[in-house]
Amino acid sequence: MKFPGRRKTKHYFPVSERDPLLYKANSHLAVENSYIVGIDQVMVDIEATVSREFITSFGLPIGESSLLEDEQTERLVQALAELPDHVRCFAGGTVANTTHNYSVLADSPSYLLGVMSESIQVGSFAYQYLCNTSSKVNLQYLQPVDGPIGRCFTLISEDGQRTFGISKGKMNCLQPEAVSQALISKSCALLISAYLVRTSVNETIMQACMKAIDYAHQAKIPVVLTLGTQYLIAQDPTWWQQFVREHVDILAMNEQEACALTGESDPLRAVDIALESCDLVLCTAGEQGLYMGGYCDSEALRQTRHPLCSDDGMEQFNYYEFSRAMRACDCSKPKKIYSHIAPYLGGPQQILNTNGAGDGALAAILHDIVANRYHRLSVPQSAKHAQPFLTYSSLSQICKYANRVSYDVLIQSSPRLSRGLPEREDSLEEGYWAI
């Protein structure tokens, strides 16, 4: 387990008054119980530069998104196979992107639940998916299916217009019995997306998702929901508000999704409203940067040393941003805490990819949550665990970390990181590194 940010060895764990044998035993337990589990509609993203005539020949409306029939998909696949120099393949899926990025950042395992083609040929789309996924992401729990995984085609015409075609394949065929209760009950978090519970209402993957959520609740494991698209949320905001209230502990969204969910266009106000239904909220807001909100017990609050910020109706909202997040139910006197950070370095000079920046930020948060579990199991007597904190770091430092990861995603052409982040020059002023 890599801990977020720069640390010297002496800052990892206290070395005085410690039984080396006990520490060794605890470390083994920490390694076994420090991972996340994600459920996803396993799909591969296929991007091709083609002519407008090529697109219309398959009956696809230019600039729109269409659901492809099986016969239509196979014709498209065969046609693209004749244009190998113009086709690029990436492993896709919002949850899968997050688990991949988490494993790259933490250098620790994550587990992905979903389906995978039982028969895989070298060079096939399923093969490309496996090749573009970190070896730290454990895929042994994927359910084998007789057929293709999901495929999302992005066809780019000469004028730069993007046309999308989606072939579901067998991606929604995950069976509830393929979900391991033992795996989820020992994890640090269960990650799901909005697509799983609304776009697949009559599919078995929804049943599998709800079963996984039930297992997580039984073991008191945080359920993390990433919203994914504003249009899906806007169809029935009331339903989603109820779903978050009943099933979700940590919520990740962008400003459009936040507005669709809460009816509030201001990201900070949307975070505040969402906190009435869950324990920790991330809202990425483009040029505004990102916002986070959570809870902390009144006895564990720490005041910021950064300049105080005010928003419309929320004066000095970052006053306690040096506090570590907790679940509201674990607080004797819960207090809402907030933090905000502007884009890293003012934002990239050239954005190569907007897909996955929010997933990257969420991966950083999950890394911090797992680091907290790892440290608590390794050094249970540490003063860092005097309270049942959810995160290892303060809300302020998590914002810095999430912001940095988002930046790295924006400056590359893929939503998946190929390497961990370089060491950062973070301040020690808030005791973030000290144990």
Automatic annotation (TrEMBL):
One Pfam entry name? PfkB
SUPFAM superfamilies xref list: Ribokinase-like (SSF53613)
Looking at the record's lineage, which domain of life comes first?
A: Bacteria
Do you know which PROSITE patterns this protein is assigned to?
Answer: PFKB_KINASES_2 (PS00584)
* Domain annotation Carbohydrate kinase PfkB: ranges: 80-291
User: What's a single GO MF annotation on this record?
Assistant: kinase activity
UniProt keyword terms in alphabetical order: Kinase, Transferase
Keyword Kinase set for record:
yes
**Family that this chain belongs to:** Belongs to the carbohydrate kinase PfkB family.
Q: What is this protein called?
A: Inosine/guanosine kinase
